[in-house]
Write a sequence for this structure.
């Protein structure tokens, strides 16, 4: 058995941890699915033999998904932030998440079909908001506030004024 990571993000799912892990592994680089542990007996939200926990990695981050039932739900208090290099990469991740039963949010935020929040954030946006000229940073920020999926060309236009 492999030595577990010292620090792992633990994510509670109603019942879709394995499906979610496989979706993440298929969608994001440096992602995979590891051990799937099956319940040795019945438990409040499942039966013996059901997938109980799933070890997986999302873009190099070790995670553990637990099929714990509907006692807890995901919230925006936790999200994966994915830094993208261009519009094509932004579109690819956004469309994968939203197009697989997820939903759009504002300012580059979206949720996958399991309710987990994602921030699909082009690097140009992060750099624009940190611009040393407050007027330039505000233009980029104001442009972002009007968006759902981030439009790289519109952020670049805001930078130029």
């Amino acid at each position: 058995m492999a030595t577990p990571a010292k620090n792992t993000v633990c994510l509670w799912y109603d019942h879709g941890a394995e499906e979610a892990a496989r979706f993440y592994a298929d969608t994001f680089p440096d992602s995979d699915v590891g051990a799937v542990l099956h319940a040795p007996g019945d438990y409040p939200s499942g039966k013996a033999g059901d997938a109980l926990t799933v070890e997986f990695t999302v873009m190099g981050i070790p995670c553990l998904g637990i099929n714990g039932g509907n006692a807890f739900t995901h919230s925006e208090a936790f999200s994966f932030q994915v830094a993208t290099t261009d519009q094509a990469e932004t579109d690819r991740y956004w469309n994968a998440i939203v197009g697989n039963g997820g939903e759009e949010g504002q300012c580059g935020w979206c949720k996958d079909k399991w309710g987990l929040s994602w921030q699909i954030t082009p690097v140009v946006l992060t750099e624009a908001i940190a611009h040393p000229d407050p007027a330039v940073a505000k233009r980029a920020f104001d442009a972002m506030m009007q968006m759902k999926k981030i439009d790289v060309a519109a952020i670049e236009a805001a930078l130029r004024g």
